[in-house]
Amino acid sequence: MVDFRKINLKKIGKAEWLIDDKNLKRKIKIFATEELLREMDDEVFIQAKNVALLPGIFGYVCVMPDAHSGYGAPIGTVFAMDEKDGFVSPGAVGYDINCGMRLITTNLTIKEILPFLEKLVNKLFEAVPVGVGRRGFLKINKDELKHLTEEGVPYLMEKFGLGWEEDLKHIEEEGRIKNAEFSKVSKAAVERGISQLSTLGSGNHYLEIQKVERIFDKESAKILGILSKDQITIMIHCGSRGFGHQICSDYLHLFEKNLFHFKIKVADRQLACAPINSSLGKDYLSAMACAVNFAFVNRQAITYQVRKVFEEVLGKNAKELQMNLVYDVAHNVAKFEIHNQKKLLIHRKGATRSFPSQPVIIGGSMETGSFLLLGKKEAMEKSFGSTAHGSGRTMSRAKAKKLIRGEDLITQLKEKGIYIKAASFSGLAEEAGFAYKNIKKVVESVELAGLSKPIAYLKPVGNIKG
Amino acid sequence: MEKPTGVRLKKWKIIEDKNIADVLVVVYGKTKNALLNNLLEVFGFIISEIEKIKLRKKITFKIKGKSFSEQVFLLIEKLIFFKDTKHLIFKKGRFVFEKKSIKVVLFGQKINNLPIKVDIKALTKHKFKLEKKEGYYRLILVFDL
Questions:
Q1: How far apart are CA A390 and CA A335, in angstroms?
Q2: How many C-beta neighbours within 10 Å does residue A320 have?
Q3: Residue A330's pLDDT is what?
Q4: Phi then psi for A94, rounded to 5 degrees?
Q5: Nearest 5°: CA angle at B111, between B108 and B114?
Q6: B122 to chain A: which residues are within 8 Å by CB?
Q7: Model pLDDT, residue A326
Q8: What is the pLDDT of residue B7?
Q9: Whole-angstrom distance between the N-terminal and C-terminal Cα of chain B?
Q10: pLDDT at residue A71 is higher than 70
Q11: Domains of chain A and any CATH numbers
Q12: Which of A51, A132, A425 to mutate to test the interface with B (most CBs of B within 10 A)?
């Protein structure tokens, strides 16, 4: 037992801790090495306890090694609700519904790409709208938005021809989550979403050209298309933009207003919830599904632009360049899944699905790099098939900006061989590598905890940011 | 939480090292009108360089809500909505307070021509609190960035 910030933590595994507090409805499991546990800010523990007070939680509340304070639930939280008598909480899914990661391979090496790197990054910056107030390159009307958000990536391919048929097999839910109902989405969400589809956004979202720095498991890596050190890959991190944010905001108001009706008390208004089987719960899940599909479509549309830019700059066809999709995985979502023969609604906020042999992408900062992993069977028992999603912040945005200017960061990174193009210098400084946990330690934690297994380590060479 | 001191009231304060991925803000105002104008200022400061925002565009609307707290919440959501849909950011406002509504006139400009620091994507309910203190209002909020 470790008395840590007045919380009794019991070590139950190499990188597993248990909070068993009689005042909580459910126990909390934290997956982290002691070092990362100590790096977590105090709010993580307060917010995780607030989650553990929610009604209807099945099993444990899980906290991932990259956890940091959010609002309502910490970023890096997983919990399950029984399908029949459980609850759904929009705040515990997050605003950026289906914010997620996508990884694309190429058959290029760093040596081959270096002469074109700046041109590639500059062209990507032009082709993929980033930052605030930019409209998407895909011009759609309301009816098309309806189809795209209800039918997802298959519709985008069929109607707009943006993608390869084989892409679908490499997207969680094959790029379309079921039960999406556009009629449950507000007019405001439609207005925010219609011009933002096919944009990267801002904050910690990025589009990155990477090189394979290290392969941990050659056999698995080969199956995923990662063949050798110095191979070039492309990573996309973004979500459902204003569309998802508005859906979350709209339903949070409704859920909060109905707390009294459902006789629910929550420790934080952001965690307002409703029974899954209530009309309100069902409506939220239908609207949320639209945002999930929006985000899949968004990353697919961006992929189309990425392939096009590589074709233009390198003078070769994207198929010839083997720009294949490794995987696209969500890290802010609530999904029905079967665990131990029980149908549960799994809430993942800042956490990635990690089913056995499923590719997992843990994205890091633009300085330190990212990891490709595979899900493990143990994750099914320990964390409802979930793992970490990123590095996790350790420093506030304001503090990061005080320590470095965006312009200086660009110069420093260029000296390290990383070419950056950003819409905002200030926003860039906030995303400096020192503001995040050491991603290698996050990956070490999920490996030690048995949640996922590292396959390859990918280092940035070019990055565009909003 | 720092309290305003002396005769001169602080307009707003960004609290560092709390909600590290997002931003925790405290806004003050001696009157409702001052509070909302200070709110516009900090909103503009977070996204852009407030001194560069010109009063070129005017927009008028009405906010309905049971309490002043609810009205303020809805007003902030409107600011986010206008930023995303009309690409507008505001610096000043005129407010007429009615029993269950506020008549709002905002002055600002298109965001596209301004230097951008970071985007405000949502107003969270986490820690949201509007208090009437002795002689001033205090608003605590967390923006999702």
A1: 20
A2: 11
A3: 98
A4: 105, 165
A5: 100
A6: 95, 245, 248-249
A7: 98
A8: 55
A9: 21
A10: yes
A11: 2-394+436-465 (3.90.1860.10)
A12: A132
Cα-Cα-Cα-Cα torsion A178, A300, A130, A97, nearest 10 degrees, comes to 20
A211 within 8 A of A193, measured Cβ to Cβ: no
| Closest residue on chain B to A253 (Cα) | B125
Q: Between chain A and chain B, how many beta carbons pairs sit less than 8 Å apart?
A: 121
Q: Which two tokens stand for residue A60?
A: 């444990």
Note the pLDDT tens digit of each residue in A237-290: 999 999 999 999 999 999 999 999 999 999 999 999 999 999 999 999 999 999
Question: Which two structure tokens, joined as six digits, stand for A342?
Answer: 């029980």
Q: What is the CA radius of gyration of chain B?
A: 14
> Smallest Cβ distance to B124: which of A71, A191, A423?
A71
Q: Do B22 and A70 touch (CB under 8 A)?
A: yes
Q: What is the radius of gyration, based on Cα positions, of chain A?
A: 21
- Provide, as residue numbers in chain B, all residues whose Cβ is less than 8 Å from the Cβ of A255: none
Task: Name the minimum distance, in Å, from the CA of A93 to any CA of chain B.
Answer: 13
Percent pLDDT > 90 in chain B is: 84
How does pLDDT run across A316-344, given as a tens digit for each residue?
999 999 999 999 999 999 999 999 999 99
From B48's Cα to the closest Cα of chain A, the distance in A is 10
pLDDT of B45 higher than 80: yes
Q: What is the pTM of this model?
A: 0.96
Pairing of strands B12-15, B23-29: antiparallel
Domain B12-144, architecture per CATH: 3-Layer(bab) Sandwich (3.55)
Q: Following DSSP, what letter does each residue of A411-445 receive, concatenated?
A: HHHHHTT-EEEES-HHHHHHT-GGGB--HHHHHHH
What ipTM score was computed for the predicted complex, to two decimals? Answer: 0.92
Q: Which residues of B touch A270 (CB under 8 A)?
A: 124-126
CA-based nearest residue in chain A for residue B110: A133
Query: pLDDT digits over A394-420, tens only?
Result: 888 888 988 999 999 999 999 999 999
Chain A environment of B22 (Cβ under 8 Å): 70-71
Q: Which of B116, B122, B144 sits opposite A132 (nearest CB)?
A: B116
| Residue A184: both structure tokens together | 């449950």
Asked if the Cβ–Cβ distance from A395 to B18 is below 8 Å, we say: no
User: Would you please indicate which residues of A are annotated as catalytic (active-site) residues?
Assistant: 389
Tokens of A246: 């508005």
Contacts of B144 in chain A (CB under 8 A): 71, 95, 245
- What is the arithmetic mean of pLDDT over A122-144? 94
Q: How far apart are CA B44 and CA B38, in angstroms?
A: 10
How many residues in total does chain B contain? 145
